[in-house]
Design brief:
Blueprint (H helix, E strand, L loop, with lengths): L23 H4 L1 H12 L4 E2 H8 L3 H13 L3 E8 L2 E8 L1 H27 L13
Antiparallel strand pairs: 1-3, 2-3
């Protein structure tokens, strides 16, 4: 006599909102900003350009770039520009693939939320749950 809520759930709906494919390395706000910036600037960006685009401090940007470099999402190299050595960053091929996969899953999150939110009528007033 199992009338458990889970019994009525179809196998398709189990874990529907788990979104396991959301890459934790990318999903952090600052790193997502860094990767999105680099995805839109294919030749790469200088450290200070990234810092300005993402509104990060030197230390914060360095820390997040270290994580992305270690994960092989971002490539870094030094080059001479205007007589000074500058640090350039760009997405690796693997980084671009992972970012596009992440964006695809994120699109599913947004579509699920939009579709389901449209179908639900908001409740009037506050209803409190009671186990009795």
């Amino acid at each position: 006599m199992s009338s458990n809520r889970n019994d009525s759930a179809s196998s398709e709906s189990l874990g529907r909102f788990a979104y396991d494919g959301l890459d934790r390395v990318i999903h952090e706000k600052a790193r997502l900003g860094i990767i999105a910036s680099l995805a839109t600037h294919v030749p790469g960006l200088l450290f200070n350009e990234l810092k300005d685009l993402c509104s990060l401090t030197d230390g914060n940007l360095s820390r997040h770039l270290s994580v992305l470099i270690e994960a092989r999402i971002v490539h870094v190299w030094k080059e001479q520009r205007d007589g000074r050595q500058q640090t350039m960053h760009c997405l690796t091929t693997e980084g671009r693939r992972r970012f596009l996969e992440y964006v695809s899953i994120l699109e599913n999150v947004v579509m699920d939320a939009q579709n389901d939110a449209r179908d639900v009528q908001p409740r009037q007033g506050i209803q409190r749950w009671s186990p009795a």
